[in-house]
Amino acid sequence: MSDPLPLEPPDAHPLEPVEERLARRLERGEVGAGARSRRRAASLLHRLARYDRAVFRSVAQMQTPLLDEPLRRASVFANFSKPWFLVAGVVALLGGPLGRRAAATGLAAIGTASLVVNQPMKRAGERRRPDRDDLGVPHERRVSMPSSTSFPSGHSASAAAFAVAVGDVLPALRLPLRVAASVVGFSRVYTGVHYPADVLVGATSGAVLGRLVSRAARRTGFLPE
């Protein structure tokens, strides 16, 4: 069976995707490991890059016009973490002392995720944004293309960090917040501004950081055990 997408020439896009760049470093012997291990790792990275683009194309080709406007709006509304600041305000206003602490913990998680993902991780990834024309994203669902690098997704990281941190404090909100975070993450692929791997890594990083922030808040006594 042939690969779902052809490999690009090695120097066609020096910053895209991150898997290909790492694979070429392995192939050139720039990473210390045995030759056989480097070949296996490089092959896996090439395969992951192709699958990533294949999934992106599959989402782009979805015939779901009823989702275009809702997901486009969700993607735009998630800029600057607006949904999570809104939820934090409502939780702080209506949730009593524990709600205020949960809101503060969630905002701290967003700040931590933004600092980690939007600075060192994006700089290390250096992945260009998807070419929506080449990959077939319909114009009706597109949003403005961010100027930052693509890997990982800051929107997904902030959403996951807030959902996990607040959900740890207020379990009743765990499911709705995680569903909302998932919608935001999917909307970033659907509108063509991120590859699936960007969202997956961003969400995973955000979830881990959100959990660490909530645990730190408990250990310092800010949250009850």
Polypeptide structure, described:
There is one protein chain. The protein is mainly α and 225 residues long. The chain folds into two domains: 1-61, no CATH class; 65-219, Phosphatidic acid phosphatase type 2/haloperoxidase (Vanadium-containing Chloroperoxidase, domain 1, Up-down Bundle), CATH 1.20.144.10. Helices cover 68% and strands 0% of the residues. It is built from nine helices and no strands. The longest helix is centred in the middle third of the chain and has 30 residues, at 96-125. The chain is globular. The protein starts with 17 loop residues before the first helix and ends in a 6-residue tail after the last helix.
Fraction of residues in helices?
55-70%
From the helix content, strand content and strand pairing, which structural class follows? mainly alpha
Silhouette: globular
- Under CATH, the topology of the largest domain can be stated as Vanadium-containing Chloroperoxidase, domain 1
Major sheet details: none
Can you tell me the residue ranges where pLDDT is under 50 for at least 5 consecutive residues?
Answer: 1-15
CATH superfamily of the largest domain: Phosphatidic acid phosphatase type 2/haloperoxidase
CATH architecture label of the largest domain = Up-down Bundle
Distance between the termini: 54 Å
Oligomer state of the chains in this structure: single chain
Radius of gyration, rounded? 19 Å
How much beta, percentage-wise?
under 5%
CATH class of the largest domain: Mainly Alpha
Order of helices and strands: HHHHHHHHH
Number of alpha- plus pi-helical segments? 9
